[in-house]
Amino acid sequence: MKLDPKAVRHLAPEDWRVLTGVELGSKGHEVVPTYLIEKNSRLRGGARGVHRSISNLARIGLIAKVKENKYDGYRLTYGGLDYLALHAHTQKNAIYSVGSRIGVGKESDIVMVADEHGVQKVLKIHRLGRISFRSVKTNRDYLKNKNAGAGWMYLSRLAAMKEFAFMTALRSEGFPVPEPIAQSRHTIVMTFIDSFPLRQISDVPDPASLYADLIAMILRLAKHGLIHGDFNEFNLLIKEEVEGTNGDGEEILKLVPILIDFPQMVSMDHENAEMYFDRDVNCIKTFFKRRFKFTSTQPGPFFKAAKKTLGQDGAKRLDAVALASGFTKKMLKDLEAAIKDKELHPENYEVSEDEDEKADDDDEEEEDGDEQDEGHHDQESQTPENSAQEKVGLQPEQDLDIEKLSIL
Ligand code: ADP
Ligand code: MG
After folding, report:
1. Are 98 and 167 in contact (CB under 8 A)?
2. In a mutational test of the pocket of ligand 1, which residue from 259, 261, 374 has the highest number of ligand atoms less than 8 Å from its CB?
3. Ligand 1 contacts CB of residue 80 (under 6 A)
């Protein structure tokens, strides 16, 4: 599924009203009946105008017709929701232009954007709860019983809200995370980190020191009451910073890890906190062993010891952040259940929705294939390990094909 700035350009004011009418209606209805769209969009031209707009919007794929037993109606597509979010970001001057997609995951699309000054930023579009069309057809019972049907729009919005709240809180405590700029619906705008994802790095001068930095980050999060929950080579971006120069005038580079991807963060008080904590630690251990042939001489760190450091050195507890920023307990539970469900049943999420184009890199495999965790061997820019020093994943200068958005 791609963002299509061209479609954004051509939306007439009436179509816009009708689109927002569908969005409003979908808060209470999975399929919004046509009469409700008419009511919500309150077009002067009456029902005929609404019907014309409905068919315009359906033609460009912002809404889709759904035949139900009881009534026919429409639902917002991902494209429609993307459109609404993009519109909101441009209104708030967070985005002026949209560039190319630099990553596609099962959980999100990552798109390069820029503001009016040409400053590059990243738009993360959450795609949580997008159930594969195949699994809808073959697995109806499963879908009926699980929260899988809880609504992709709702779940994706929760993921974006939670991620934005944690990014803001972590940033304010000085953690190395991107700066969150804006959130609308299922999307977030944040600063672009010019970096290599750790997974693309084949070699580092001093693995022990990078390892120590990453373990220190896990422990620092714990002090603030948090476990990242997906602390691995996909969610760590490595920046090179010049630390100084040596006697020969050569630059001394320092590798600085930046942490991303926060919808699954959990509290140190979570009932499964120890499992999540150990999993994060082990991800790093396993990766360093496999990639850099590095094994720490130190055991641990261990959850029990980390838990004792909660709040130490004046560390502010951050685990209540989501609740403090408008989340209800139910919302957190729904989101957690959806993330867990996806971990347990990735097969139900593998193909795109019927109206979406099928990802053309579906069967692409990670080169070294071993021990890849599910849900992550899906980045659009796969890099063979031996060419890891090229910034294959992130090539904004060459790739960026900025389309000016002129909305409405
Ligand atoms: P997902 O939930 O789909 O895993 P992530 O937030 O982990 O989404 O982003 C997916 C990929 O996009 C990352 O592995 C990274 O390569 C790239 N990416 C995400 N955010 C940024 C950013 N702020 N700057 C640069 N690259 C980013
Ligand atoms: Mg990720």
Report:
1. no
2. 261
3. no
**Averaged pLDDT score across all residues of the chain:** 81
Ligand 2 centre from 315 Cα, in Å? 26
Place of tokens 């990553």: 103
DSSP secondary structure code for residue 357 in this structure:
P
Cβ count within 10 A of residue 70: 7
- Give the span between the Cα atoms of 153 and 185, in whole angstroms: 8
How many other CB atoms sit within 10 Å of the CB of residue 20? 14
Task: Please give the Cα distance from 61 to 7 (Å, whole number).
Answer: 9
Alpha helix segments (H runs only) across 234-366: 273-292, 303-308, 321-324, 329-344
Q: Is the pLDDT of residue 257 over 90?
A: yes
* C-beta separation of 61 from 2 below 8 A: no
Q: 225, 276 in Cβ contact below 8 A?
A: no
190 ligand 1 Cβ < 6 A: yes
Is the separation of the CB atoms in 128 and 140 below 8 Å? no
pTM attached to this predicted model: 0.83
Catalytic site includes residue 230: yes
Tell me the mean pLDDT in the region 61-77.
Answer: 86
Catalytic residue among 15, 82, 109, 230: 230
* Among 96-110, 114-128, 233-247, 371-385, the least confident range: 371-385
Q: Which ligand sits nearest to residue 120's alpha carbon?
A: 1
